[in-house]
């Protein structure tokens, strides 16, 4: 055997290669396959073993090829609770069988996400700014159960606005529903003090003191190594006070409005990216169907005795494709196409409270819209060396977006129905710096909106 | 002025023990890899994981006219826990593909010390200039393994074919470029870089 070793060593040296045509000395044409008889998770402090195993989709007693193990590693890497995951194969109890050791480095149990967005457009001379800050924490409370809490704040420094604790989210996740590796997630959301514009009929209203409660339910069912079906149900209700240009003389009027909305979305997703935050290679395909509705009930109009009852039905089709390709060292390109088609059927009644059968005016009857967005992103990993990687990921991105929007509305006024069409296109150039470590994500983004 | 003296001193300093060594032999540039890489604790962890680890080696240099040249090679290593052996596969400009079985860690290190990679070939005399050497530790890729396997099959079938040694060599260089280019599409686990001088072999 020693002779064989030295012979093979000698054959690999350039002395021979300079004079010989390339040759194959010995080739292992078999793709190695590993029978996994046990899976051990190490390095976990808070993330339960069951969560890691559930996400890996690996089953003890089965044989896996190396690529399948790599895909399992990538799935674990995409978990928000995992900074890094490594696999190691060790000897099993009998020859040919292996123990798989899954070594993970967790993120911290608290998390901070800060995004500072600075925007300028060719139509407006000033620069707008919106900063969002999210602070939260998570606790694993069982073998496969997670509780999390987060609060979101907003700031617009240029206008001196700062809303602390604007939104609260309380969530619960279960990672292995029915022992089928199904992720179930329930969220309760609350938001307050949002000043926003609400369109009822054809008229805008300023909403004040809106208090909004929402429930989100998600079930994510794995359908293969990289396929998921995701079902999301969403319900939201709000009690708002509106101030707006209602037709009651010249007086600004406050009305109480009950808003309710809900939707159900079914999405198929295919994901082979190698990282959730800064993917370098891989693809994402998403196709979603959404069906929803909302209603607005404006009954307590002060002096006008008007009643506005609106009910909208919403149908949407969404498509998303992302491709990440590294091309040299730490440089990366990403391409993204997002398309959406939406139909909104409106049923809006506006009448005197004592004459409910005689509508006063009716606005849009049906809206159809089509959106198409394409992104090309060039990114460079600024901290790619082994000495700096331990401090986190730092990435600089340049993004060019082209967006097209088409809207076609059936507008009904009195008894006449007319078709109104509008097209718009937009380009957005963005420069963004992203940073992530075990407990924080920070984004600093500058964008310029223009119409080519 | 102190900075200039420091630069001159660094340029004249003998190569650090364990750094890669670049040698010119006529039109070829050969690289001997750094001895310290295999000793790095993190690299050991990757190598002993039982999964394939790829090492991508590249050189970059400029000739006297400032024109940039590049060369590359790839090494795949896998540790088999049951037999405690290492399998090594090498691609360089010689188009060599060797599935070597190295009996233990010491044999791996010995093989690594003796390994010389042909990274650049010139019809005349290869430029012998200060060169940037980089080594990236990459995760396994099944697609590249399939590419390599197909390539091995093709090489095995045509080595005695009508194309001859020169045509074979060109094909190997092209395929090596493909292999290296696809390797770059993976996120490196670790990266090492050196600045080395080129040694002329008489």
Strands, helices and their partners?
The complex is a heterodimer of chains A (452) and B (202).
Chain A: H1 2-11, H2 14-17, E1 33-42, H3 49-56, E2 63-65, H4 66-77, E3 82-91, E4 97-106, E5 110-121, E6 127-140, E7 145-156, E8 161-177, E9 182-200, E10 203-222, E11 227-244, E12 253-271, E13 282-298, E14 306-328, E15 331-352, E16 364-381, E17 393-413, E18 416-436, E19 440-450
Parallel strand pairs in A: 1-4, 5-19
Antiparallel strand pairs in A: 1-2, 3-4, 5-6, 6-7, 7-8, 8-9, 9-10, 10-11, 11-12, 12-13, 13-14, 14-15, 15-16, 16-17, 17-18, 18-19
Chain B: H1 2-12, E1 21-25, E2 28-32, H2 41-47, E3 53-62, E4 68-80, E5 85-91, E6 100-102, H3 105-114, E7 116-121, E8 131-139, H4 142-158, H5 164-183, E9 190-196, E10 198-200
Parallel strand pairs in B: 1-10
Antiparallel strand pairs in B: 1-2, 2-7, 3-4, 3-8, 4-5, 5-6, 8-9
How would you characterize the overall build of this protein?
Chain A has 452 residues and is mainly beta. Helices cover 8% and strands 66% of the residues of chain A. Chain A is built from four helices and 19 strands. In chain A, the strands form two sheets. Chain A has a 15-stranded mixed β-barrel. In chain A, strands 2-1-4-3 form a four-stranded mixed β-sheet. In chain A, strand 11 and strand 12 (253-271) form a beta hairpin. The termini of chain A are far apart. By secondary structure, chain B is α+β, with helices and mostly antiparallel strands. Chain B has one domain (18-200). Chain B has helices spanning 2-12, 41-47, 105-114, 142-158, 164-183, and strands spanning 21-25, 28-32, 53-62, 68-80, 85-91, 100-102, 116-121, 131-139, 190-196, 198-200. Chain B has a six-stranded antiparallel β-sheet with strand order 6-5-4-3-8-9. The chains are: A mainly beta (452), B alpha+beta (202).
Tell me the domain tally of chain A.
Answer: 2
Number of strands of chain B: 10
Shape of chain A: globular
**Averaged pLDDT of chain B, please?**
74
Helical proportion of chain B, percent range? 25-40%
What is the total domain count of chain B?
Answer: 1
